């Protein structure tokens, strides 16, 4: 086993022929052993010629760097090869089924990418005069119209840059509405135990107190528990539907009525909108605000932290508080900014971002909607739910279901009860999935389920790909049950890198690369 320059064994284990025929480079034919970029490049050189900058007086004071920055210089071929090789080690939706629950990693049609790169969209600049971006503004306005149609809401803020950003916008609109009514004393936000972690974080960030609402034995929130938590201090509830257990909240209409009767607002986390597009409109269910992850529901996989887009739709109760900037249609398309003339009743609570949103995400979502149509988007939701239930039913005899064998929505949730006394954990099972060529599902979430395994196949997968995935998981499950612990504890065996010591990495992280000692060639 080889060591990397920080002294940690990382290379995949070798058996049989591979072990008997080691290579000098560490490469195995087309599987290239890629070095760190610091080991490839040289700090004293650069791949480009840059004029020497003029001397200026530093304004950094004691913060000024007193030594070379130490970045490696690479030639263009070296840089290109390095990042291409790294991309070949990455798993993505173009590589295979990506069962990452609650993240909707669906196929991203190349048509959408092509549209996003059209001149006038791909090269539009946020500081261009409004008169020169009328087409882009028209697209944003048209997309906004479709989002309102799909959700049954009268208003939408397009500027939030991601789901949590939209969530923040929705809760800030609720706070502004309460203050406008003279009800700023309402400081409590109800959040179910199974909620996404951003929900309580967002509420706390803007000054609300979070009060938990329990999830019942069937995995849903019951209206009786909500009513018991209501009072004159409650500002809102933050509920996900379908929820993070993959179940539709069947009492959502009654919950909305109870919330409104108490003078509070209903925020719905829209992370799982992919399950109900074209089937149910949140506005019809009594929702007052809901963010929409364009990057999840409308086709742009977002692994690696971006890109994202999180428009938030608002009910009639909150429509007046849409943040700046927003589009107004007259003789043309105009952006209403701070200081601009407002129509009667408009009370923007402020602004969420420097500019109007993520143009590339808007174009991709628009292309997705136009290519699918209303019936196609509805069918996508139906297929997402069908695929998840196919996986649930196909694994239910081997893997345990925390809320009983009831139909799920777009994601199937298993717990680790079936792994008791096997010596195999949820993490071990997930690592063994890597050896089988699959990205692991969401692990240990939602927190209300012990050892959770949350699987979302999306509508993109064919029956053939689902059948192979199911067969692989069944084989792993049977191996765990028959005591083949070694298959799991050392996994992954076939990945370019072995399992990390995550505890050590968290407690003693190595945050800076250090140059290794010179390598001495062995004597003959």
From TrEMBL:
Keywords: Oxidoreductase, Pyridoxal phosphate. Residues 1-22 are annotated as: Disordered. It is an enzyme of class 1 (oxidoreductase). It comes from Phreatobacter cathodiphilus. Its EC number is 1.4.4.2. This is glycine dehydrogenase (aminomethyl-transferring). InterPro entries: Aminotrans_V_dom, GDC-P_C, GDC_P, PyrdxlP-dep_Trfase, PyrdxlP-dep_Trfase_major, PyrdxlP-dep_Trfase_small. One of its GO terms (biological process) is glycine decarboxylation via glycine cleavage system.
């Amino acid at each position: 086993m080889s060591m990397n320059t920080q002294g940690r064994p990382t290379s995949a284990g070798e058996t049989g022929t591979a072990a008997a025929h080691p290579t000098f480079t560490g490469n195995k034919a087309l599987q290239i052993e890629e070095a760190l970029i610091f080991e490839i490049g040289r700090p004293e050189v650069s791949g480009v010629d840059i004029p020497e900058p003029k001397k200026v007086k530093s304004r950094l004071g004691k913060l000024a760097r007193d030594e070379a920055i130490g970045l490696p210089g690479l030639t263009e071929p070296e840089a290109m090869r390095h990042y291409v090789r790294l991309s070949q080690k990455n798993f993505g939706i173009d590589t295979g089924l990506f069962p990452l629950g609650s993240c909707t990693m669906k196929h991203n049609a190349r048509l959408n990418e092509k549209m996003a790169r059209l001149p006038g969209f791909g090269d539009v600049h946020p500081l261009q005069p409004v008169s020169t971006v009328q087409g882009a503004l028209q697209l944003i306005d048209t997309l906004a119209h479709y989002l309102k149609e799909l959700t049954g809401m009268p208003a939408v803020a397009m500027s939030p840059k991601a789901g949590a950003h939209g969530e923040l916008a929705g809760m800030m609109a609720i706070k502004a509405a309460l203050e406008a009514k003279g009800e700023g004393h309402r400081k409590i936000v109800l959040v179910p135990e199974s909620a996404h972690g951003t929900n309580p974080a967002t509420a706390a960030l803007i000054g609300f107190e979070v009060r938990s609402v329990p999830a019942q034995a069937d995995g849903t929130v019951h209206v009786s528990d909500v009513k018991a938590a209501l009072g004159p201090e409650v500002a809102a509830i933050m509920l996900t539907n379908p929820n993070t257990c993959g179940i539709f909240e069947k009492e959502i209409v009654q919950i909305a009525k109870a919330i409104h009767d108490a003078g509070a607002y209903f925020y719905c986390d829209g992370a799982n909108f992919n399950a109900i597009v074209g089937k149910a409109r949140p506005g019809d269910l009594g929702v007052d605000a809901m963010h929409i992850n364009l990057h999840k529901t409308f086709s742009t996989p977002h692994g690696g932290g971006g890109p994202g887009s999180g428009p938030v739709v608002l009910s009639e109760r909150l429509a007046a508080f849409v943040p700046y900037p927003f589009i107004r249609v007259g003789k043309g398309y105009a952006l209403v900014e701070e200081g601009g003339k407002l129509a009667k009743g408009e009370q923007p609570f402020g602004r969420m971002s420097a500019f109007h949103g993520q143009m590339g995400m808007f174009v991709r979502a628009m292309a997705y909607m136009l290519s699918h149509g209303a019936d196609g988007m509805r069918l996508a939701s139906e297929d997402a739910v069908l695929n998840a239930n196919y996986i649930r039913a196909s694994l239910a005899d081997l893997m345990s279901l925390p809320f009983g064998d009831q139909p799920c929505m777009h994601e199937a949730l298993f717990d680790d009860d079936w792994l008791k006394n096997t010596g195999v954990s949820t993490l071990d099972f997930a690592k063994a999935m890597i050896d089988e060529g699959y990205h692991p599902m969401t692990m240990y979430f939602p927190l209300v389920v012990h050892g959770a395994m949350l699987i979302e196949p999306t509508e993109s997968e064919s029956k053939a790909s689902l059948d192979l995935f199911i067969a692989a998981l069944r084989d792993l499950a049977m191996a765990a049950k028959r005591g083949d612990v070694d298959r799991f504890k050392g996994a992954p065996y076939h990945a370019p890198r072995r399992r990390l010591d995550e505890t050590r990495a968290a407690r003693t992280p190595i945050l800076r690369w250090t140059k290794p000692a010179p390598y001495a060639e062995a004597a003959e």
